Amino acid sequence: MSRMDVHGTVADGFEQVREAFAAVLAEQDGQAGAQLTAYAHGRRVVDLWAGDEVGGDTLTAVYSSTKGAATLVTALLVQEGCSPSTSRWPGTGRSSPPPARTRSRCGTC
After folding, report:
1. Residue 24 CB partners (closer than 8 Å, separation 6+)
2. CA-to-CA distance for 16 and 40, rounded, in angstroms?
3. What's the pTM value of the predicted model, to 2 decimals?
4. What is the mean pLDDT of each run of 10 residues along the chain (109 residues)?
5. How far is 71 from 76, CA to CA, in rounded Å?
6. Quick one: how far is CA 59 from the chain centroid?
7. What whole-number distance in Å separates Cα of residue 49 and Cα of residue 68?
8. pLDDT at position 1, please?
9. Residue 25 Cα to chain centre, angstroms
10. Are the C-beta atoms of residues 73 and 66 closer than 8 Å to each other?
């Protein structure tokens, strides 16, 4: 693993994000640059970047961004009590009583 300089800022209490960001980049052995920005309660709390051709204002294409959001929504549904998936996705569970649960769709049961 190699060390890559991480630039940018983190708000008080978010220092571990910088450490985790640096650790992930180190695993890439200097082969990839990255940017990370996070907001909490409307305030930017993380603004980091690293890599040879990456700066704080570098525009980066985003691919497959909805997969993460879909996974997060599914996890939140499971956390909130595993409502039947038929109430969320009409058409599922019609052929097999009882209806499939969101938790079983996630593979956590």
Report:
1. 34
2. 15
3. 0.57
4. 82 96 87 90 96 88 83 81 59 55 52
5. 9
6. 19
7. 21
8. 47
9. 16
10. no
